[in-house]
């Protein structure tokens, strides 16, 4: 079930669709048995209040009554523990799914109700509250709707039986509401569990989307830059092949090297291992701009300021230089790097249609924004394009 469909179920379904299912069959794993024994023993502990009336029956030497009452209490305890072991779900791996009620649980509830009737007949009205265990067992082992029906039926029975049989009066009326209160508390807890699971799945989906976007940005930046330089160098080699064969061969060797580097970069990106540095991109920019006959003024790699944003500035430089080569028709490109930012300025044709909305610049804006910075594009007075990324200083 997807997160969106789960939210739709929360908004638009009935009671059984709005709240998490309580349990599912399959509690025979080691972990499920442990939880089943613990839950069953805790429930049996609440049944210990019947020990006093049974002991009194033995003290009165009423052996038939005492023996039958003892057997009924032990049977009740066995049914409770058994229900927690057999019907309690082994894990919570699918808390968003509401499974139908296990039909095998209905005979268990009927047997528990029979034990309650037997204890009432043997020990009197003090045994009437044991009917609560029928409702509580249903709450913990049945889906929302069915468990609600059982809890409500138990409440009505505990309210109406003393009215129909005054001899069974004496139990405080508010005890009758215990099954319904337990049902409501259980559903609130399960709803919180469902919302927590929805939040967890949303976070997982967002992480997947973010990783997909990262790969898309990296692949675009790597291939966009490399293929642009390959195109420029191929055109240059074609012009030189009849004029300067040695240089044409050198340019084609560079084309082969760039193609191999692009392939390696794509593989590293898919594996999450792609590393970009400002120094490396300055060297690539010098080669790419020279191949495009664009005069470059670049900072000395030895004297670069230590800003702590080398990788980010490398991505900015890569994308900006790619756009200069591809779109600007510039004759000169200047790169300036400071601790707080990087600026790439060209003297080309300026901001053209589509340049400001390209996927490369969109991905670059996301990178800079993720680092807490701002990416701006502008046209200086003399023409061209200025790409500037500013980031907060790293302490």
Overview of this protein structure:
Strand 2 and strand 3 form a beta hairpin. Helix 8 packs antiparallel against helix 9 (178-240), helix 11 packs parallel to helix 12 (310-328) and helix 12 runs antiparallel to helix 13. 34% of the residues are buried. The chain starts with a helix and ends in a 5-residue tail after the last strand. 63% of the residues lie in helices and 7% in strands. Strands 1-2-3-5-4 form a five-stranded mixed beta sheet. It contains 13 helices and five strands.
Shape descriptor reads rod-shaped
Q: Structurally, how many domains make up the residues?
A: 2
Over all CA atoms, what is the radius of gyration?
A: 38 Å
**Element-by-element helix/strand order:** HHHHHHHHHHHEHEEHEE
Topology:
Blueprint: H1 3-12, H2 15-18, H3 30-46, H4 51-59, H5 63-87, H6 105-123, H7 132-141, H8 144-164, H9 178-240, H10 245-270, H11 278-291, E1 295-297, H12 310-328, E2 332-338, E3 341-346, H13 359-370, E4 374-378, E5 385-390
Parallel strand pairs: 1-2
Antiparallel strand pairs: 2-3, 3-5, 4-5
